[in-house]
């Protein structure tokens, strides 16, 4: 948890011949950095089980309050059976519970348990601790990196908003790479 790369197996980043495309070079370097500083093993040790992507997304979303399975599925582009499977696994680990919906007896709310809140706090401690390589950068370099990453994050948000505005019927959400 000290921000150093784990000695466990690191997810390999595909290697391909060098490219002269600066965007591909930057993307490859970002993948290599993130892969080298993966916190998956630390997280697995702290939680006592592997928190897969689907379980992690749903667990972290529930930090904001209880939701129905339908709301969880829609928020992540999952189908109902997959969402049920994820919730079942989180429930088996004692991290969530199903509660009666206050307005509709036919539906259930999925809510964090105290153990779920604790797991999120542990995960935050692990995942939000920057690698030492970032801590060693000069303040000016960190500001520049943060500004560039902020542009990238908002570029994706702007692109998604534009796509949804162009396809209000939801057709844009069914494009390859935008689902489960």
CATH architecture of the domain at 45-125: Orthogonal Bundle
Strands across the major sheet, in which order? 1-3-2
**What is the highest CATH level, the class of the domain at 45-125?**
Mainly Alpha
Q: What is CATH's topology name of the domain at 45-125?
A: Arc Repressor Mutant, subunit A
Provide the gyration radius in Å. 19 Å
Distance between the termini: 30 Å
Strand content: 5-15%
Low-pLDDT parts are 1-10, 172-180
Which geometry do the CA atoms define? Answer: globular
Largest sheet: 3 strands, antiparallel
User: Which structural class is indicated by helix and strand composition?
Assistant: mainly alpha
Task: Name the CATH homologous superfamily of the domain at 45-125.
Answer: Winged helix-like DNA-binding domain superfamily/Winged helix DNA-binding domain
Number of strands: 3
Order of helices and strands: HHHEHHEEHHH
- Report the helical percentage: 55-70%
How many H/I helical runs? 8
Average predicted confidence as pLDDT: 84
Layout of secondary structure:
Elements (H helix, E strand, L loop, with lengths): L21 H15 L3 H8 L5 H9 L5 E2 H8 L3 H13 L3 E5 L7 E5 L1 H14 L4 H4 L3 H28 L14
Antiparallel strand pairs: 1-3, 2-3
Helix pairs in contact: 2-6, 3-5, 4-5
Question: Which terms would index this structure?
Answer:
Arc Repressor Mutant, subunit A; mainly alpha; disordered N terminus; disordered C terminus; 180 residues; globular
């Amino acid at each position: 948890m000290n921000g150093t790369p784990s000695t466990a197996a690191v997810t390999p980043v595909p290697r391909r011949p060098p490219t002269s495309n600066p965007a591909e070079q930057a993307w490859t370097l970002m993948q290599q950095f993130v892969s080298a500083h993966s916190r998956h093993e630390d997280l697995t040790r702290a939680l006592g089980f592997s928190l897969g992507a689907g379980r992690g997304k749903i667990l972290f979303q529930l930090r904001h309050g209880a939701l129905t399975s339908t709301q969880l599925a829609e928020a992540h582009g999952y189908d109902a059976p997959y969402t049920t499977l994820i919730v079942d696994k989180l429930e088996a680990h004692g991290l969530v519970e199903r509660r009666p919906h206050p307005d509709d007896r036919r539906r259930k709310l999925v809510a964090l348990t105290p153990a779920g809140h604790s797991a999120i706090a542990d995960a935050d401690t692990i995942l939000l601790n920057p690698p030492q390589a970032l801590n060693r950068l000069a303040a000016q370099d960190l500001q520049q990196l943060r500004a560039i990453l902020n542009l990238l994050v908002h570029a994706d948000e702007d692109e998604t908003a534009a796509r949804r505005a162009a396809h209000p019927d939801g057709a844009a959400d069914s494009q390859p790479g935008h689902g489960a």
